[in-house]
Specification:
Blueprint lengths: L5 H22 L6 H11 L13 H20 L6 H25 L5 E4 L2 E4 L3 H24 L7 E7 L2 E9 L14 E4 L1 H8 L11 E6 L4 E7 L3 E6 L5 E3 L3 E4 L6 E3 L6
Parallel strand pairs: 4-11, 5-10
Antiparallel strand pairs: 1-2, 3-4, 3-8, 6-7, 7-10, 8-9
Helix pairs in contact: 1-2, 1-4, 2-3, 3-4
Length: 269
């Protein structure tokens, strides 16, 4: 094993954990501020010190990795029963994929650039190289995203399917980038529908009795207030232009007077 510098080990772990948490937030549609993300990454980077210990049993290593992922998720997103396991799973999956990538690259290099111990990794190159490679990867992803959005049809027609128990409802959908509403607790995107449009689905059930009911602050150009939310059993968005359908994880906000369901286009990505 090469010489391990403690400061480099902790900084590398902080840096990598920061972007892994960012990836988990993106995959789960959870808002995450840079300061809280940085503090969570700093706290979880302490688990990288396990590389300095004598070899531990494999099952103990797996348990420690799971605990480290859980600690990072709680520090970054908070402990919310509805979304914890989804965030935890995505963060652990991102770690697993990164470890596989590092192993693949390490096997292709003559001398190797990674040292392993107790399922922790030490990258044998400078932080400048790490920043450079990450910037290049993010730039490539940003370019791909811009190209994909440029070729997106802005005149596509959508339908949104809702299921609540045995009741079903289909509304015309409107993809609107102005709808940035997310559930404060879980970070789940919100599809906004009027009470009149949802009447056949709710069938007279008070919003307070619906699953996942809560109030979130909502502001428009002309007013601001609290928007009631609930979680339907199923939400599916169908692109009538292409014929493709996609089941999405979203909550429903009751507000406005429109007859269509307003959602953010990122729900389709």
């Amino acid at each position: 094993m090469p010489t391990i510098y403690l400061d480099v080990l902790l900084l590398q772990s902080l840096y990598v954990n920061y972007f892994l948490l960012r990836a988990a937030a993106k995959l789960t549609h959870t808002p995450l501020g840079w300061l809280r993300c940085g503090l969570a990454a700093a706290g979880s980077s302490l688990f990288s010190l396990l590389i300095l210990l004598p070899p531990l049993p494999v099952l103990l290593q797996l348990l420690l990795k799971l605990l480290a992922a859980a600690a990072a998720v709680v520090l970054a997103f908070g402990l919310h029963r509805e979304s914890f396991f989804r965030q935890w799973g995505c963060f652990f999956l991102c770690n697993f994929l990164l470890a596989g990538l590092i192993l693949a690259v390490d096997s292709l290099t003559p001398r190797g650039f990674a040292a392993w111990g107790n399922s922790c990794c030490y990258l044998n190159f400078s932080l400048f190289q790490l920043v450079l490679f990450t910037a290049a990867a993010y730039s490539l992803l940003h370019i791909c995203t811009l190209l994909r959005r440029r070729h997106r049809h802005t005149d596509d027609r959508f339908q949104v399917f809702f299921r609540l128990g045995s009741r079903q409802l289909v509304l015309d959908g409107l993809a609107d980038t102005g709808n940035n509403l997310t559930d404060t607790f879980s970070g789940t995107p919100v599809i906004v529908c009027s009470a009149a449009a949802l009447a056949p689905l709710l069938d007279g059930t008070p919003p307070e009795q619906l699953k996942g009911y809560r109030l979130i602050p909502c502001a428009t150009i002309t007013a601001q207030g609290l928007l009631p939310l609930f979680r339907p059993d199923e939400v599916c968005i169908r692109n009538c232009t292409t014929g493709k359908s996609r089941r999405v994880d979203a909550m429903v906000g009751i507000g406005g007077t429109q007859q269509n369901a307003i959602f953010h286009p990122q729900l389709l990505e």
